[in-house]
Amino acid sequence: MDLFSSNKTDNNKIKVTDAVRDRIPDGLFLACPYCGTQIYNKQLGDFRVCPNCDYGFRLQARERVALFATDFVEFDADLTIDQTDFPGYQEKLDRAKKQTEMNESVLTGSGRIDGQAVDLGIMDSYFMMGSLGSKTGEKITRLFEHATSHRLPVVLFTASGGARMQEGIQSLMQMAKVSAAVAAHQEAGLLYLVVLTDPTTGGVTASFAMQGDITLAEPHALVGFAGARVIESTIHEKLPKDFQRVETLLKNGFVDKIVPRQQLTSVIGQLVALHQGEVADV
Ligand SMILES: [Zn+2]
């Protein structure tokens, strides 16, 4: 037996054997979905951000409320779809409700961000991929209507896989319904601020995610309409790196500013204060 044989792989990284892997408890180390860096779970901190590239790991809506808002009062918590004919839909809904402690893929309510009164919507990618069901659309519509009648700005964190196919046309109609409520809010001269988070795609991108007066985004969030693989197989071309990442959208004018998660509270607070006519300490 060669006592001095190398236990290293070709690229000079120490080989992780199955025996070593078995000693690492699940969830202790995570790979950043954007840059691939292996991160010790505790390094992510409360904001769940990659220390190497600032990518914000996906959060549940209630985690975001705890991070960004105070005095939160939830709206329409019990609103849920009562008829689910599509095979397997009810089971998926039940699982999502249990996991997220929500009855739909968006959490809405009023509260304060950095001391500023806002109406707040947060989509949750853990609830059926944040898909746009009819009650998701109804909750966001009611949020805008409440904000219009109370003359409040709306801050909406988007995260969605797109329309909810189990609800067919009912889901697609939400794009128009929410857009009408956004327009009424805008006509009243009120601020609508969008924060694009990873991932925001499909019908949500094709409607209210792109209708904000100001569009912020978290670093490296994926934002697009159709999936990259679908586009590649349609046009028979390889897409460039970072296609559909917010850094590309920023260059092309779809995003106003990319803000690391740790700074979002103060940036949103300053933008709202500025719009309310208050002088912010910049
Ligand atoms: Zn990273």
From TrEMBL:
Superkingdom of this protein's organism: Bacteria
Catalysed reaction, written as an equation: N(6)-carboxybiotinyl-L-lysyl-[protein] + acetyl-CoA = N(6)-biotinyl-L-lysyl-[protein] + malonyl-CoA
Database matches in InterPro entries: AcCoA_carboxyl_beta, Acetyl_CoA_COase_Trfase_b_su, ClpP/crotonase-like_dom_sf, COA_CT_N
Cofactor: Zn(2+)
Gene3D superfamilies in UniProt: 2-enoyl-CoA Hydratase, Chain A, domain 1
Pathway: Lipid metabolism; malonyl-CoA biosynthesis; malonyl-CoA from acetyl-CoA: step 1/1
Entry's cofactor comment: Binds 1 zinc ion per subunit.
Keyword tags: ATP-binding, Cytoplasm, Fatty acid biosynthesis, Fatty acid metabolism, Lipid biosynthesis, Lipid metabolism, Metal-binding, Nucleotide-binding, Transferase, Zinc, Zinc-finger
EC number(s) on file: 2.1.3.15
Subcellular location field: Cytoplasm
PROSITE patterns: COA_CT_NTER
Oligomeric and partner information: Acetyl-CoA carboxylase is a heterohexamer composed of biotin carboxyl carrier protein (AccB), biotin carboxylase (AccC) and two subunits each of ACCase subunit alpha (AccA) and ACCase subunit beta (AccD).
Family: Belongs to the AccD/PCCB family.
Protein role: Component of the acetyl coenzyme A carboxylase (ACC) complex. Biotin carboxylase (BC) catalyzes the carboxylation of biotin on its carrier protein (BCCP) and then the CO(2) group is transferred by the transcarboxylase to acetyl-CoA to form malonyl-CoA.
Protein name: Acetyl-coenzyme A carboxylase carboxyl transferase subunit beta
Organism: Fructobacillus parabroussonetiae
